[in-house]
Amino acid sequence: MTQFYYATDEEIKRGATTDIYFVRTKQVLEAKKLDKTHVVAEVTPGELPHEWPWGILCGIEEEAYLFEGVPVDVYAMPEGSVFYHNDCRGVREPVMCIEGTYGPFCLLETPMLGLLCQASGVATQAARVKRAASEKSVIAFGIRRMHPALSPMLDRAAYIGGCDGVSSLSGAKAVGAKPTGTMPHALIVVFGDQVKAWKAFDETIEPQVPRVALIDTYSDEKAEAIMAAEALKKRLAAVRLDTPGSRRGNFPELVREVRWELDVRGYKHVKIFVSGGLDEEKVKTLSEAGAEAFGVGTAISNAPTVDFAMDIIEAEGKPVAKRGKLSGKKQVWRCPQCLKDIVQLFKAPRPRCPFCGGVTEPMLKPLIKNGKIVASLPKPKEIREHVLRQLQKLTLER
């Protein structure tokens, strides 16, 4: 018996985390000798949360491990791809396609969707926050708001979406980076004195860790910013404002005031790091006010999930579909220049981009062939760089 409530890798792969109706479906199909039916199923997003015009696909590496050893073929958009609810003509676009005998993968629909829905929501929200911050740093601070078993997934998805760093030890390991963080109020409260705490941090922590002083524990932020700068001088990299909403008043004005008082005293090298209840709109406003780094927690880790659904769209080579879905195996063709998509039947010829006339590229690429992983699984850093390149191409209205 485990002391914490989470599913093991083995339980996920054998379908122990599925919905009961898939267990009963498999029983019925086996009893009626229909479990060997060859199907094509596609995974499509519903309308995106908050009327987002685009999303960032995340969770494909875990999908590869989920279907490894299962006798199916899987096609998927590469991890980190921008995706849309509909293509440029209003056709709902698939992000993944599974082909094979239905019985062996019937029980995997629930975990397959779960791996995509939450991670893609987190990656998308992180991308939106990073876009609002532009070239300024965004650090994922949200693991304390979610079950600790999810911390590697949450921080990986946030990093892939564009965050420059993550705070958790497990998340940093998952993305192949060092964890990023400052100091808690608890450190200052235990010392009972801000300056003593800042100096103790400076004397104790290895020099390659940036000195970021938390400046809102006891006094006015402006006063503490000056105290921190005078205490650590050139060694001070930044001051962090984590001011509670009940005390912060006009936060952008507070940032401007701190920036002014540091500059006028010759501490222009000291950056302003802000955290506490931030989202993409607040990041944009505070960035314009002069903040240079952002710790974003709940808005990213508690991002709305993307409602992906899986539907059978071919059975025994014949097009089939439930109401509201389009039958037939499909391919998504994308213009790499303007990121516009066209969905066509899988065997239809390659289209030209209807907007710029460019050559399109197929987005659904082989991931699994008869249970074997055939795609390369890039490192999180490579995926993140791909995401950032795409964000530069998205038009303002998108």
**CATH architecture annotation of the largest domain:** Alpha-Beta Barrel
Terminus-to-terminus distance = 48 Å
Largest sheet: 7 strands, antiparallel
Low-pLDDT stretches are: none
Per DSSP, the total helix count is 15
Oligomerization status of the protein chains: single chain
The outline comes out as elongated
Question: Percentage of helical residues?
Answer: 25-40%
Strand content is: 15-25%
Kindly provide the name of the CATH class of the largest domain: Alpha Beta
CA gyration radius, whole angstroms: 24 Å
CATH third-tier fold name of the largest domain = nicotinate phosphoribosyltransferase
The overall strand count is 18
Q: Averaged pLDDT, please?
A: 96
Order of strands across the widest beta sheet? 13-12-1-5-3-17-18
CATH superfamily label of the largest domain: nicotinate phosphoribosyltransferase
**Structural class by sheet pairing and helices:** alpha/beta
Give the number of domains.
2
Quickly describe the structure.
The protein is an alpha/beta fold. It contains 15 helices and 18 strands.
